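New to this. Please check this fold:
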Amino acid sequence: MNMHGTTSSYAIEPAAIPSIPVAGTDKLFPVHRVYCVGRNYAAHAVEMGHDPDREPPFFFQKNPDNLDTTGEFPYPPASNDVHHEIEMVVALKSGGTDIPVEKALDCVFGYGVGLDMTRRDLQGKAKDMGRPWEVGKAFEASAPCTPLVPASSIGHPTQGAIWLDVNGQRKQTGDLNQMIWKVPEMISYLSGLFTLMPGDIILSGTPAGVGAVVRGDVLRGHIDGVGDLEVRVV
């Protein structure tokens, strides 16, 4: 219905609503927006040439349909340097503006294991030119992830190992307690910049050890208490 109460139709067929399966159920979690926290583990911030003690949190976005649960990551065009970044996925069931830190976890539906795949060469060129990062970050299938596990089942993880193996070799390793900005803080901070909505996803940052992938690589990611992700680069 349009604002005058008459029936309207779309000019073209609307795209399907991007969604992530909910583990152990036949339900889907509909995705609204995808916010990514930059340089949220101190060692990774240093690895990327920044001082973690001097930066307020910052965010960039991926697109909802960049999330992918097929287990395959198609190597993208226009890049020769695509990196893996293992992250905890935070899915919101409610939102708002100016959410207090102490109430932020009430907004969380559940968690997952995800990858922020990055065309590092294109991101680097964008950084050098003072341009946005989307060409490096928001391409097709650039956010492989697991089904979501409800917080009602696992609680709210604040510590525990987060790691990524490439072809059986450990590349990234850290602990959730090493996050510079914790999950309640990132939700609260984001809600001062945007109106958070049910269906919003937050990729909460990556530990040190990011590196390039090639076709044929098998990536295995793990977060204690959340789950395991396996992705093949094709």
Observations:
- The chain is about 15% helix and 30% strand.
- The mean pLDDT is 94.
- The helical segments are 42-47, 120-128, 134-137, 151-154, 183-191.
- The radius of gyration is 18 Å.
